[in-house]
Amino acid sequence: MSHSENITNAIPPNCDTIIIGGGHNGLVAANLLAQAGQKVHVFEASSHWGGAATSRAIAPDVTVNEVVTHLTEWPRLLSQKLRLGQSGLRYTAQSDAPHTVLLGASGGHLTLKNGQVTGENLSENDQNEWQNFTQAMRKFARVLAPILAESPPLLSGSLLSGSLLSKGGDFASKWAAAKLAVRLRLLGRRDMREFLRIIGMNGFDLAQDYLSHPMLQGLVALEATQSGYLGPRAPGTVLPFLLHLATQAMAASSLGSYQPYDRAVAQPVGGAASLSAALAAAAERAGVVLWPNSKVQKILIEDGQAIGIVLESGTRAMAKRVIATLPPKNLMLDLVGPTHLDGGFVHRMNGLTSRGRMAVMYLVVKSLPQFTGLDESALRSRLVIAPTAEMVEIAFDATKYGKCASASALAITLPSLSDPSLMVGGNHILAVQVVGAADARASQDTATAATQRNDLIAASLRQLEIYAPGIAGQILHQHIALPVDIEREYGLSGGAWHGVDVGFDRFYALRPSFDLADYATPIENLFATGAAFHPGGGVNGWPGHNLAQKILRIKGGK
Amino acid sequence: MTDQNYDIIIAGSGHNGLVAANYLARAGLKTLVIERNEYIGGAAVSRSLYPEFTYSNCSYVCSLLRPEIMRDLELPRFGLQIIPYEGGATLLNNDKYGQNYFGYANNHEIIRREMARFSPRDADAYHRFGRDVMRHCKFIKPLLMRTPPDPTQFRPRDIKELLYLGQKFWRLGDRQMAETIRFWTMSASDYLDQYFENDVIKAHLSGTSIIGTALGPKSPGTAYVLLHHYMGDIDEAVGAWGFARGGMGSVTKALADSLRSVGGEIKAGAGIDQFLVKNGRARGVALTNGDEYYAKNIVSNMDVKRTFGQHVAARHLPSDFVQAVENYKARGSSGKLNIALAGLPDFPGLPANSLFLSGDLHINESINEIERAYDDWKAGAWSQTPYVDMLLPSRIDPSMAPDGKHYMSVFVQYCPYQLAVGEWNDERRQAFGQTVMNAIARHSPNFKSLILHAEIRTPFDIEREVGITEGNIFHGELTFDQLLFNRPIPGYAQYRSPIKNLYMCGSSTHPGGGVMGAPGANAAREILFDLGMRVKNCPGLYGSVEARAA
User: Fold this and answer.
1) Is the CB of residue A136 less than 8 Å away from at least one CB of chain B?
2) What ipTM was reported for this prediction?
3) Mind telling me how many Å the CA of A477 is from chain B's nearest CA?
């Protein structure tokens, strides 16, 4: 991109909105605001767009979507709203492969499709249990789903503190919360009670309450903990599980047709990097000006109002409002600075934790791997190795003490199979999410991190070997990104998807803290969004979308 | 076969059963308490299992007993005396600190001084910590003696109660609201990290966050359990625990005497076989000896799993309810050692005759150590480095042991109800006891040589003797999904059950475990509400809930 030259002259004296950070949420917000007629400028510190949703060469001739291995949470609705199709985004064909296959040692696999489970030696009871479970979770996910696309109310302005029409907070977000309460009520007494029971529960118990098959329990345990820091026995892990399903429900073509664990989801061709390229291109088409290689050093604040930014180069840019998409701690403490904030707020920012424990491993293999007892067609599914819930818990035990697990839960996809554009020199790639890595704080030392990388690869390969004998001999390249690598390379704090740990205390009107939940900061005209904000991380675009909607709602938003 | 008719029959003579019986008898109802064991008291008992020694062989401290109940039922008049702890300590024996201790006393200045020995910063933070914990206590305390609302019903009383809660919550202000939600859902480890840096201090304070729960200090939700133990009300000092003179049996003995004084009856040595149900109504109990007793209302002091899993035929219950009872989590995680000692053990880490010796002694030096103890439990084994809360009650109350000798009560966590290696047997019980004694002996070289007798109790033993499912001391986990309107079963949090006239008053109902008495009092209030009655001279029963009956 050529914009970075002559930056001083190029920036108009006053634009409507400056966005700091060209991750997908920044681009989504930029696009929507520009479509509404705003003049928007986006400043990105790196040379590429899309933040962590990008590709990277991990070896000569080997380029992969290093962090974001698949895009099951990206909503088609946003692709349409942002007109990504006009900017070259294509989807892979809708596959008929099952959503997920749970790998069993010596070939006793379970196939999840259409809300059903099939497999050898599976009892009728197991099948019924799974069906009941997915139906219940579908209901609950659909109760939660619509709030993902709305900004949360502030606690002080929420329904709790008075009527829908009271002054605090904005009406639309209160209305969204009221609708959530109504949806909950409409579940009926029995389901509402069940919802209120499980929402604060742990994934381990949820799995045990509904399911008897250890592999199905293992899957639930994994999905309850995949994106967070906790183990499945930790209370509060059902919430992230339901949010995960809700995000997928919002990504489906319609909420009504959503069925958990239905079929492998059609994804943008080229994966995360293509999505990001399309987002950047569509933003430009909408009139957004993109500034790569432009690290913002400071937010200019006058009389408690954000008026613009200063780049590291010293250049200033002014705007009516500033939106930041970086982690709230960095934003408030580094770019704003404690002098503009009260002590309690600074304390809260310092208390935000972000602890990723998922590593991403890539294997480039000479030919399609042979999993014992698995058809080639099933390789288009997500393959999960999490034989029991206990195993997923034990993998977390290692993380607790700053170590990598000796046996992690693995979620494997072969993106090159359904999307040949992702093939690497005619070879296939396996993208493996390894849940059981040490969190970033435990890998600060370079030598420790190197050992951890080697050990985690070796341990994961040992596990893979059990299910796909001989796979080790097929490997041409192997690569792993630990949370610490993801943090350093992409600026995701703690290497976590979510920017701030997900939990009951960091959800909806409390995410990332009660006074930032509606994307507004204590500094007037400074807004914040990103993975740390409602509804959280992963490539789903909702944080950016919700903020743009909110700004457009505010009087004089243009 | 004898036939007897009562207004109220209460199954189980635990403290909650006796509290409920007391209030009901005070309303003029003909009340009978039936107890399976030959002795009364449930888990609040004093027993003499070795000549001249008295053990509080289950529960061992008294901190949560509601003062309004003590007043209403005139327990001091019936001999109950609570002696506050003076302090406690964590004993250290490691490379960093040598043989040393961290002391904790019922005195702000001493705590500050002790903390300063380990971290001056933490000593400064203690003020903030104490203030915040106090604030959370103040928020929750009034909820203890109230019946939780059912948010899925549209009845006026539920809506009223929900509004009360909403309003109370809103009055906190947004910042405090957020803090409260965080506190209810955080892990003790994360919570303490907000205030303290020193491992020893954090380990000491985190101890109360895991007692009785099948969670480690790093599990979310444990910060709340920490509070559950801070709500003690002795002499209005928050966080203070106390001994009952004569052991915990004195609590239930006073309750029983108080009950008899108002005409209530107690029948011990009578195990209940079944609750008698006819046309969806409870009408009595059938004992294992064949006797039947009838009453208009039946109250179960047993936990919800035992009540409905073992003593009510499933055909009388809706299938959803049966499933929910099955899903209710009561996990055994604590064991207990009661030890008769020939003399006072030496603790080289502590100054001689230290005041801390009269409180609870801990031996865990870091949160990670306690968390590892939890990891062992998850794997179906007792902890190799157990969490230990030990006391020498005879230091404060000489009546517990002969002159010069001492009774030591050792609460141990974690100890599973079911071992991965197989059933509990005597050999494994002894091995568990040895693990604990060795852990203590690290801090007291002569401890083992002083042992005259040791009673070792695993969750399995506690279930067998006391009747609590899995030996879970709180009658079920105090996790978010089992608190307030979810406790014990969503939709049945108001002390009633699917069977008419059959009520619950044990610790598996709101507000949960500990020798608190609140579940019993709340259940009594609900029964009286259904009967359209009110007890005079018991203001504590109604607390701030005036005119509930109106």
Assistant:
1) no
2) 0.93
3) 36
